[in-house]
Amino acid sequence: MEKDTFTVTAALPYANGPLHLGHIAGVYLPADIFVRFLRMKEHDVAFICGSDEHGAAITLRAKKEGISPQEIVDKYHDIIKNSFHQFHIDFDIFHRTSLPIHHETSADFFKTLEANGSFTKENSEQYYDEEYKQFLADRYITGTCPKCQNDNAYGDQCEKCGSDLSPTELIDPKSTLSGKTPILKATSHWYLPMNDHEEWLREWIQNGILDGEKQHDPKKWRNQVIGQCMSWINGGLKPRAMTRDLDWGVKVPLPDAEGKVLYVWLDAPIGYISATKQWAKDNNLDWKKFWCKKEAGNRKLIHFIGKDNIVFHAIIFPILLKSHGDFILPENVPAYEFLNLEGDKFSTSRNWAVWLHEYLAAYPNKVDELKYVLTSIAPESKDSEFTWKEYQQRINSELADVYGNFVNRTLVLSQKYYQGIVPQPLEFSSVDEDVMATIEKVPAKISALIYAYKIREAQSEMMQLARIGNKYLADQEPWKVIKTDPTRVQTVIYVALQITNMLSAVTMPFLSVKAKELQEMLQVNYTLWPESPLVLEAGHQLGTPKILFEKIEDELVMNEKAKLETTIEQTTKYPKMKDAINFDDFAKLDMRMGKIISAQKVEKADKLLHLIVDTGIDQRTIVSGIAEHFSPEEVIGKTVLVLLNLEPRKIRGVESQGMILMAENEDGKLSFLSAESGFGPGPSVG
RNA sequence: GGCGAGGUAGCUCAGUUGGUUAGAGCGCAGGAUUCAUAACCCUGAGGCCGAGAGUUCAAAUCUCUCUCUCGCUACCA
User: Fold this and answer.
1) Segment A207-224, tens digit of pLDDT
2) I want to staple A252 with a disulfide (CB 3.0 to 4.6 A). Which of A225, A260, A304, A667 is the partner?
3) Which nucleotides of B are covered by protein (CB under 7 A)?
4) Proximity of residue A471 CB to strand B below 7 A
5) Cα atoms in the 13 Å half-sphere on the side-chain side of A640
6) Which domains does chain A have, with CATH numbers?
7) Beta bridge partners of A72
8) C-beta of residue A666 within 8 angstroms of C-beta of residue A574
């Protein structure tokens, strides 16, 4: 039978920050184990990843730090690539989306879809800033509102009268970029009419049937993936714009599209394809073999992702691939839930994280130890949690005590009794035969689990083998029997060595470094997954035993926990000071004390309270986003700081005439501001 | 507010199409042992399976209501 072939991708990390353990546990490590396993099974596999370097978040950050987007992505691409390398997550290629081959590939992809009518093109006349040479998004245009004459209305909405506008309705429009009057120019945006694809998506996701043929087994897809997708589809898919007015990204490859780039979620997954192209080119392969229906046959495309990416990989990208026509669709999209850290979410902004590159710098020799821990707590079916205490416990009581100790005692006994030469077994007792039979079944057990993406359970089967070994030795007591029946010990040590041998082979996908060290100690070299019984022949000379896993001291746990506490203190919890303003700017603000005289929840909105505030000069309506922090009952009667002359704005159909000013601490908790002397409503602030 | 996924032992998690006494590892208690990394091995304690109602001879499992956690989404000037 022909072996299945695979193209495996791991979600492209976004190049505006380093990787933390959550990313590793929930995408890259399981993908790497899966691929190592497939390789040992001699499947033809391409393992593809790269950094995602486009999108608005990177341009905003660049602007804030006063450097170019390229500088940011260069920095993080290097950090990420390095840490993958040191952590032995071995992609065939770790590419990047800012390279020309990616731009070409994405542009070609786009052109094909445009040509075959997969997009709907919305033509319009849009304002264009001649000085900045770009089309202006609605929010980048201000002008006079045709309805209320407010001269500060935005292109999409007048915040004074609350009416929805289009930019062309504005009287005397101005570009917020150059301040000049923009000109109207014909332009288009391209939309993906996702609503046209609901029918086949439903059939494909629920039943695994694509173009009338069985493409995958939906039972192998995770619940949360199918659930999330069906939720989207049943809610009705909507056309989604595939182009943006931005200058950082893949340029829309058509005339009249100046200043437009492809939507980052269009170009990022195509990054898998362009990375494959580059890798194929470097290795004299045909990239189409990995992606195209014709050349790839029934190659399986697998996307390892986090749960926040489900919609893009299981709905949008498949629509694009299918619309293009040449490509295969994913056979599975194993999505992982999130990993938490010491009782709290990983948070980049609060620096609540264990960064992979920092871990590697501090513990360069503890790569497989971390891999083991992360795999045992991988969030396969629900969110899970990393704690340093558990890190220590797993390593000490499982890796060191069970696995390492078993290997050590077996090898030490072999040295002691047989000078490191595998002894000749004599008669097998029924226990021996049971154990031998059990060992032989382990590879098939583990492989079934990995094929089903149950990697955590697969690893625990590996550990189970070491447990069997410890029990076997304890039951047989060779150190006692040697005194009465030395020939029996030959068989016992032989069997124990067979367990160790098998262990060294099945550990490869999970802990490649340690597996090789163990194989070195056994003087064997396994690169293939054991299909038939592995035998360590009698007479084989073993290598020198050494300690495989060192224990983790309490000190490390304390230090790491302390480090988390202190970094969080050192992190600037609060935003930087804003640009200076002059006194006139300040004097424009009309702030007063106001008393909340009534409050109720806005319907169908989680965060909004509809307040009536007595300001001393009037009673006005203010809608405030504080419902998650305060109940209506507890805010009534409070005297608080109010900004009166903020332009009114309609929120959820209610016009809000001002703003309640709140203080927010680093945990996101809110507090009202009041006058210390207990003033009532009315007093002005300044 | 809408939708999705979860809630099982102190901790991390399994529980297939409803079917004996709900499982594993860690942790804890006791015992045994000394080849080995104060390791291993044995025994044990520990669960109203988030709450309530229903269907059934039988529910962790199916249905409904409620509640908590996470995510998507709307809305947070």
Assistant:
1) 888 998 889 888 888 888
2) A260
3) 1-7, 11-15, 24-27, 33-37, 39-42, 69-72, 74-77
4) yes
5) 24
6) 5-111+265-345 (3.40.50.620), 116-244 (2.170.220.10), 388-522 (1.10.730.10), 583-685 (2.40.50.140)
7) none
8) yes
